[in-house]
Amino acid sequence: MAANLKGKIIDIVCDNNMITSDQIRAARTLLKLSADALAKQSGLGVATIRRMELAKGVPSASAKNLQAVQTALEEAGIIFIGPDSAGEGVRFRHPPGQRNNE
Questions:
Q1: pLDDT of residue 83
Q2: pTM, entire model
Q3: Which residues contact 32 (CB under 8 A, 6 or more apart)?
Q4: pLDDT tens digits, residue range 15-31?
Q5: How many Å apart are CA 27 and CA 37, to the nearest integer?
Q6: Cβ distance 73 to 23 under 8 Å?
Q7: Given the DSSP bridges, would you call strands 89-92 and 78-81 parallel, antiparallel or unpaired?
Q8: Neighbouring-strand partners of residue 91
Q9: What is the percent of the chain where pLDDT is above 70?
Q10: Hey, which of 18, 38, 81, 99 would disulfide with 89, CB 3.0 to 4.6 Å?
Q11: 46-51 contacts: CB < 8 A, separation 24 or more?
């Protein structure tokens, strides 16, 4: 695990690679991505995405499906932040102004 040190961005990785429903919703919101678009990018059904997002904590989905969602969001520019004193979260891989969509 690492932190932001003197302006240098260092990735923080989820310790157990189990993303939460809150992280999925937050990542999708940051990307302005619809549930349908995430379903297509992850190769899953939109109903599966919606079920994952409605769960509390880590969705009760297969590890394969959770990994597919995490990979799709990471490829779209999201980094998942593991739990620490501030709690888990998500952020863009690149700082504002350096993302492809800006």
A1: 80
A2: 0.76
A3: none
A4: 356 899 999 999 999 99
A5: 13
A6: no
A7: antiparallel
A8: 79
A9: 75
A10: 81
A11: 49/24
Closest CA to 26 of 65, 76, 60: 76
pLDDT at 96: 60
> Could you give the CA distance from residue 56 to residue 58 in angstroms, rounded to a whole number?
6
In which residue are the tokens 């980094």 written? Answer: 79
Confidence of residue 94 (pLDDT cuts 50, 70, 90): confident
DSSP letter assigned to residue 44: S
Contact 16, 28 (CB under 8 A): no
- What are the residues whose beta carbons fall under 8 Å from the beta carbon of 30, sequence distance 6 or more? 78, 90, 91, 92
Q: What is the DSSP string of 12-35?
A: ---TT----HHHHHHHHHHHT--H
Contact 73, 28 (CB under 8 A): yes
Residues recorded for the chain: 102
